[in-house]
Structure formats: C-alpha cells, structure tokens
Design a protein that fits this description.
CATH topology of the largest domain: Dihydrodipicolinate Reductase, domain 2
Strand order of the largest sheet: 14-13-12-11-7-10-9-8-15
Distance between the termini: 36 Å
Structural class: alpha/beta
CATH class of the largest domain: Alpha Beta
C-alpha cells in the first residue's frame, strides 16, 4: 500500500489518545478506526481523529484500511488482543508492559512471530534526548567502565485515580507503580548497561490502598555493574536516571530533557546541550515506517518479553525476600 499507514486504536483513554495524536503528527500515519467498550468514548475519539468507530475489535480487524493496531488497554488484556491482531495479519504496537505474566507475554510474542507481523512494545523513554546522548557517550568510551546506575520514576497519580481505575488492581499493577512507571527505567537501564542478571525487591505495602505504595529494586547486570530503582504513585513527579562510570557520571534530568556530565576529578556538573525530541512520536514514526518496509522496531516483542521476565523476578523477590536470577523466569 501507499500513502499514510492506516492505524486502528484499541483503548481510548488518556494514553491511547496520546499515542494516536503522536501517530498522526508523524505525517506518515493516520487513524482510521477505533474501539473501546464505551460507545460515548468511541464517538468522542472518532470525532476528534476523523475515523470510524468500530463496534468490536473483530470489526476493526476486518477493516481493510487498518494496517496496524495500537493496543493501549489494561495491562492484563494486552496478550489476548495481540494474538487477535496477529491472527488478522496486522502489525501491532502495544503499550508497555507487554503483559504481566511471562507465559502470556510469550504467547503474544509467538503469535506475532508465527503470523510474520511487525510487533513493537512502547518503551519510549529510552528514546529521550538525554538517554540517546548517554548511549553515545558510553559507545565513545567517555564514561569509561559502567559501575552503577540509579533511577527514579514516580508520579502522584495515587492521590487522584478513580476508585474504579484498573490500576488499583494488584493483578494489573504488581509492585504498584513499578509496572506502569518504573518499568520504563528497567528498559532504559538495559539499553544503557546491557542484560540484567538478578534483582532484589522491597516494597512498602499499601496501607489504605490495594497496591504497593513504593517499590525499590536493586539489580546486578551481566557486566558486573549494579543498579537501583525507585518508583511510587504517592510522591511528586520525578523522572531521573544517573549512570556512573570510571571516567565520568551522566545525569538524565527532567525526563530526558536535560543532561549533566561530571568528569572524574571534577566536583561540579556541566550541562550538555541536547536537540529536543518527542520520544512518543519517534516510536510511532518507527512503527509506521516498519509497516512500510523500513527497519524492524528497536523494541520488539522479544525485548518486551525480557522486561516482563525481570518484573516477574522482582515480584518473586518481593514475596520471598531473596535475590532472584532473571534466568529463572526467562522463556
């Protein structure tokens, strides 16, 4: 096919709408169909994007104009929707996490592979301007050998989420905000420092809420480097990541919009200029180009599966109080 890539969207909440807007802003994709369980929500979305409101996922998948589908529904529903999209021969973009269960995540990945369709997982924060620059500094050897990393990803959503919100379900949000938020930093740490060997987890269980209030992870990487990560729905907005090497330390600040560098022997940090980038739009641009025969997505199904394996190991650690090897959860 030629012209803009036709995309359908399943899950029309705030983030599904954000993804749809980003896709249209690429200039090479358009929204042609949408579905959510609520008829009113479908109408509002369809009016905004000038697309058709499908009465069911099956109706959307039968639409010949739909070349790919953006899945932005609750976490536990991802894997079955992916299987349906793949069976229909459509490309699939699924918001992270790929799934909350390793076996379900594997089933989703294998369905896409068996169908020979493109699959991309929405771990966009690795694409921030600061993270891309840190990656290049590592490749250039300017940070030296990576010794450790520290990340924090939190927002105060716990104070405003509706009582009926699915994120209050511990099955949808194991380890609380780690599944929705901290998982971004897990992917980014792997992107910067390589595979993770093991994880240790501690949480602050919910007192008046049904999910963990705060979660802390400690990682050991295959390289020997170590890392730590904090996440919560009950503290101010924080999105930071620091990478400490033998030659320099790099500090991703303000969700990747700023970068500071501190060289060995220095006691102050230096601002590093960055070219602004929209990570969400960037990943949708990649998805559309892949559908048109461009390079395969950077974060494919197998990469998303690895993150689910790490999350599963962290859950086990939280329950047992022991360090857990990621290999025990890989499929």
């Amino acid at each position: 096919m030629t012209g803009p890539v036709g995309l359908g969207v399943v899950g029309l909440g705030w983030w599904g709408t954000t993804l749809a807007q980003a896709a249209t802003e690429t200039g090479i994709a358009r929204i042609v169909s949408c579905y959510a369980r609520g008829e009113d929500g479908r109408k509002v979305f369809a009016d905004r994007f000038g697309c058709r409101a499908a009465g069911s996922p099956a109706e959307m998948l039968a639409d010949g104009d739909v070349e790919g589908v953006i899945v932005a529904t609750s976490h536990a529903s991802h894997w079955q929707l992916i299987q349906a999209v793949a069976s229909a021969g459509k490309a699939v973009f699924v918001e992270k996490p790929l799934a909350v269960d390793v076996d379900e995540a594997l089933a989703a990945v294998e369905s896409a592979e068996a169908a020979g369709v493109i699959m991309q997982v929405g771990h966009q924060r690795r694409r921030s301007a600061a993270n891309r620059r840190i990656r290049s500094l590592i490749d250039e050897g300017r940070l030296g050998e990576i010794q450790s990393l520290h990340g924090h990803q939190s927002i105060p959503n716990g104070f405003t989420m509706r009582e009926e919100a699915w994120r209050w379900d511990a099955n949808e949000s194991p380890l609380g905000s780690m599944t929705s938020l901290g998982i971004h930093k897990i992917d980014t740490m792997r992107y910067l420092a390589g595979p993770i060997r093991s994880v240790f987890c501690r949480t602050r269980p919910g007192r008046s809420v049904s999910i963990d209030e705060s979660t802390a992870l400690v990682f050991e990487f295959e390289s020997g480097a170590v890392g730590s990560l904090l996440s919560s729905f009950f503290v101010p907005v924080i999105s930071e990541l620091a990478v400490f090497g033998t030659e320099a330390a790099a500090f991703n600040i303000a969700d990747g919009r700023r970068l500071e560098l501190q060289m060995r022997g220095e006691t102050t940090r230096t601002d590093i200029p960055l070219e602004p980038v929209d990570p969400v739009r960037d990943q949708l641009d990649e998805f559309a180009r892949a559908i048109r025969g461009g390079p395969a997505p950077e974060v494919d199904g197998r990469a998303g599966l690895e993150i689910v394996s790490i999350l599963a190991a962290a859950v086990e650690s939280s329950l047992t109080g022991r360090l857990v090897e990621i290999a025990h959860h890989r499929r």
